[in-house]
Automatic annotation (TrEMBL):
The keyword Transmembrane helix applies. The chain crosses the membrane at residues 43-65, 77-96, 216-239. CDD domains: TM4SF9_like_LEL (cd03159). SUPFAM superfamilies: Tetraspanin. Disulfide bonds join C134-C167, C135-C151. GO terms for cellular component: plasma membrane. This is Tetraspanin. It comes from the Eukaryota. The lineage of its organism: Eukaryota, Metazoa, Chordata, Craniata, Vertebrata. InterPro entries: Tetraspanin/Peripherin (IPR018499), Tetraspanin_animals (IPR000301), Tetraspanin_CS (IPR018503), Tetraspanin_EC2_sf (IPR008952). The keyword Membrane applies. It is a multi-pass membrane protein. Keywords: Cell membrane, Disulfide bond, Glycoprotein, Membrane, Transmembrane, Transmembrane helix. Belongs to the tetraspanin (TM4SF) family.
Length: 249
């Protein structure tokens, strides 16, 4: 018996089409288009950040061990640049918070469209909706963007006018997750939907989470900033001590 790759069924994007096609299931294969980074794979971003952190740690460690003032100065200056970039980013995020909110809405909607295209992305969306008790970007109707869940008359999917199970309200008495709890739920009146699913969007819920945990979030950012300033001060102090010793020779 030959082993074959797993396949995933999805309906074509053309409205009214009753055809289905079989496509291989990838692992985050469409992440570049989902994140809308102009074709840049986010993996490269993590590699660049990791490379920068390695160079920074190498310069600080070797500079201190070998008493190399050039590496220590490079470490302190580079760390200072990172600190001011973080500070600038925080200020810009506060000033342009409406733009960031729109981008977050766009990001979630792009992910909704690709919900069934990637199993890892699907798990990420389900985790987000379960964690924040939300559904869609600003509401359950955002799932109309997905070819499986939209309410158009030509949609042949069994999930038509439904939502993923992660939108459903949790029942503590259920030991096994009912993955069909969201079927046909958006065909009901809005007053009845709230009895079965979370009607709040993930963007408002995320804003509420930030407000409720503002002290914790601010404390983390302040702690990271203080560590960076402390590292800069230690590096500069060590450079001064080394130069003072060398001057006395």
């Amino acid at each position: 018996m030959s082993l074959r790759p797993s396949w995933q069924m999805f309906s074509p994007p053309e409205t009214g089409s009753d055809r289905f096609c079989l496509c291989p299931q990838g692992v985050l294969s469409n992440i570049s288009s989902i994140t809308d980074l102009g074709g840049l794979d986010p993996v490269w971003l993590f590699m660049v950040v990791g490379g920068i952190m390695f160079i920074l740690g190498f310069a600080g460690c070797i500079g201190a061990l070998r008493e190399n003032t050039f590496l220590l100065k490079f470490f302190s200056v580079f760390l200072g640049i990172i600190f001011f970039l973080e500070l600038t980013t925080g200020i810009l995020a506060f000033v342009f918070k409406d733009w960031i909110k729109d981008q977050l809405n766009l990001f979630i909607n792009n992910n909704i469209r690709a919900y069934r295209d990637d199993i890892d992305l699907q798990n990420l969306i389900d985790f987000t909706q379960e964690y924040w008790d939300c559904c869609g970007a600003f509401g359950a109707d955002d799932w109309n963007l997905n070819i499986y869940f939209n309410c158009t008359d030509g949609n042949p999917s069994r999930e038509k006018c439904g939502v993923p199970f992660s939108c459903c309200t949790k029942d503590p008495a259920e030991d096994v997750i009912n993955t069909q709890c969201g079927y046909d739920i958006r065909a009901k009146p809005d007053s009845e939907q709230k009895d079965y699913i979370n009607v709040k969007g993930c963007v408002p819920q995320f804003e509420k989470w930030l407000q409720d945990n503002l002290t914790l979030v601010a404390g983390i950012f302040i702690g990271v900033a203080l560590l960076q300033i402390f590292g800069i001060c230690l590096a500069q102090n060590l450079v001064s001590d080394i130069e003072a010793v060398r001057a006395s020779w």
